[in-house]
Amino acid sequence: MIDSARKIEEETFPGYVAERYYPAHIGQVFNSRYRVVTKLGFGATSTIWLCRDVRENRYLTLKLHIRTNHPIRELQITKHLQSIQQRHGGEKYIRVALDSFQVEGPHGIHHCLVYEPAGMDMNELLDVFEGTLPVAVHRTTIRSVLIALGYLHKSNVVHTDVQPNNILLGLDNDDEFVLDELANSETTNPTPRKHLHNRTVYTSRCMPITIGELVLCDLGEARILQRNKKQDGLMMPNAYRAPEVLLDMEWDEKVDIWAVGQTAWSLFEKGHLFPNRPLETDLDHAHRFAEMISLLGPPPFEFLRRSEESLKFWDEHGKSTKPYSLSVC
Question: Is the pTM here over 0.90, yes or no?
């Protein structure tokens, strides 16, 4: 048992509010169908659980979203992809919801999504290999992600959140015993947890290495491109943010390819190509542009002309301007 004063799992996020999370417990049955077996993970907007589908007698993964009145974008993207019904080959590398429903919690409504189970993410696999993936695994990973993105982009979907922790090892038929072992372990050797007056906070159980094909997951920040229209606005994690987004330009599926390049670096080096600093001020942005220039050279003049924001850092001829020197020693 964990001391109730110690913060664990989702409680460690800045701005954590317990009432926003659904107080799930092991053994609970959702939607008269999905029995919770063990906790697999957590995030700022959800908790993840291994469940047993009591109707079809199989394991599935349940994502319990925090309380919200807004529609779940991932569900919208799933319905969009299902409506297209195109055969591409990349759809098997995308993890989409199999079922969705809502559950009423003590403080409001929670959206729930159900998926095929998957294994550990690439960051966890990097830890197993002590920081560097074998070349064959790295090559297979990037190839699978590119095929997955080919399918999304042909379907007019931009993922916007390609990074190692959104790439999961898959499970095949030979991995069923892995899930049985997780379920049995929860019975014989329960994970540490702490009991509070209105909920139990569980620690997550680690997935072992599995051998199924990789899947790109988490379409929660994805966007659908309308015909002949690009997107705009702030997107992508700081460390993977594309230049178009940094300069407040319109952007399209090419931002995913930028993120793939940085992901490829992260999987080789277990770190970010560019430091994962806040990007809140003009000085923060100037530092990031200088880092990009040091590796890639100055941006094309035609590219800068697409953004009025670029005039903060370059003049109308594409030369860097004071007070932000973008030259790198």
Answer: yes
